């Protein structure tokens, strides 16, 4: 696995671009606390749908969940069936079922198929979109690790924590207010409160991740003490594992381009 280069204390978009030019794959810093927002810009619903699909695949969700999400996207369903049948052109059987198409393609290839347009959507020549998406992936995985420590037997809580981590950077990625992002997505109230106000269990966990990215050691220790189920050593180890996982995801996306 290739070494992961992470730039810390990134405070401006200009600094982010400079770090990308130096081949840093991930960014951390105050820049994410005040992302560049374009007033009046509208969110692209297809990008959010694509993100939701990718989250389901990455999280190893049931095929039925992935199939159900695809049913709301007729064009993606058609493209998937067309691709799978084209690849199996020598076969006497035509695949007409989304579920069957997912099984034939496999999760790894499905992930690559979804990642390509997502990672290139809104892509800029400076590479900040890729870096933000990879940082968002690391946030999601770290949030999941924290949630596992919090509620080891609550898979739903862990999945929602992962999604909050990933979604928390969509305002920076798309240049759109978080209120619009949340308003477009059908998410549970605790996730809304976490993303908009950093309230609730998920909100405090997200606040911990953000404090770590901005180097606020005092706040990190305060929140860890407040949570009561996590040590600093555990949190540091979780961060390393989350970064390694995000690096693997980034490598997969890079290979699919």
Key terms for this structure?
257 residues; 2% strand; two-stranded parallel ribbon; 2 domains; single chain; 2 strands; mainly alpha
Structural write-up:
The chain is mainly α. It has 2 domains: 6-41 and 125-256, no CATH class; 45-119, no CATH class. It is built from 14 helices and 2 strands. The protein has helices spanning 13-21, 45-58, 63-71, 74-87, 98-105, 107-120, 128-150, 155-167, 170-174, 178-184, 189-197, 200-213, 217-227, 232-256, and strands at residues 6-7, 26-27. It has a two-stranded parallel ribbon with strand order 1-2. The protein is globular, with a radius of gyration of 19 Å. The mean pLDDT is 78.
Topology overview:
Layout: E1 6-7, H1 13-21, E2 26-27, H2 45-58, H3 63-71, H4 74-87, H5 98-105, H6 107-120, H7 128-150, H8 155-167, H9 170-174, H10 178-184, H11 189-197, H12 200-213, H13 217-227, H14 232-256
Parallel strand pairs: 1-2
Q: Determine Rg (CA atoms, Å).
A: 19 Å
- Number of helices in the DSSP assignment: 14
Shape descriptor = globular
Total beta strands: 2
What is the domain total for the residues? 2
Helix content, binned percent: 55-70%
Structural class: mainly alpha
* Sheet with most strands: 2 strands, parallel
